[in-house]
C-alpha cells in the first residue's frame, strides 16, 4: 500500500516538474493579484509541506525503532490549516468537534476535498511560501525533497508503516501511506492553481 502511494506521489511530482520546467524567473515570480500567490510561491508551499510531512515520518520511524507507540498528535498550534473563511483564532475551540466529524467522514470524501479546490483553504503558517526564490532552486528542491522521501522509506522498508499514525483535528488520522496520498492529492490541487496562474491574462511571455 505504501509503495502504491509513493508511486502516486512520484507521478504527481513528475507532472508538477513538467508544468514548471521551462518557466523563466519572471514567470515564476508573476502573481495575478497582490493577495494571490505566484507559481514560485505555490511550488515553495508544496516543498515546505512535503518536508514538514517528511519530518513527521522521520519522527514516527524513530519512535518505532525506540519501541515507543508511533503516533504523532498534532494540534492547530502545530499546523493551523483552516477551511473556508473560518478565522484561525477559532480553530482551538473546534478541535474536539472536528475530531468527531473526522471519525465519520469517509476517506473518499476527505480525498475529494483535498484534491479539488471547491472549498477554499487557508494554508498553515508553517508552510507559508517564501517569495522570490530562484526558479532553479525551486526545481531542484522539488526533485530533492522527493528523493529524500524515497531514501527514508527504502532505508526502513522492513518496518510496518501502517502502524505509524499522524493525527490532526482537521486532516484526520493518516498512516504513512495516507500521508503520501494526502501529499499527492494536495499537490494535484495546487497543480490546477499553477495552471490557472499560467493562463491568466497578465502572465509573462517566455521571451
Provide structural commentary.
With 207 residues, the protein is mainly alpha-helical. The protein has one domain (2-198): dinb family like domain (Four Helix Bundle (Hemerythrin (Met), subunit A)), CATH 1.20.120. The chain is 55% helix and 7% strand. It has seven helices and five strands, in the order αααββααβαββα. It has helices spanning 2-20, 25-29, 39-65, 95-104, 107-115, 135-155, 176-198; strands at 71-73, 82-83, 121-122, 165-168, 172-175. The strands form two sheets. The chain has a three-stranded mixed beta sheet with strand order 1-4-5. It has a two-stranded antiparallel ribbon with strand order 2-3. A hairpin with a 3-residue loop joins strand 4 and strand 5. Helix 1 (2-20) runs parallel beside helix 7 and helix 3 (39-65) runs parallel beside helix 6. It is globular, with a radius of gyration of 17 Å. It starts with a helix and ends in a 9-residue tail after the last helix.
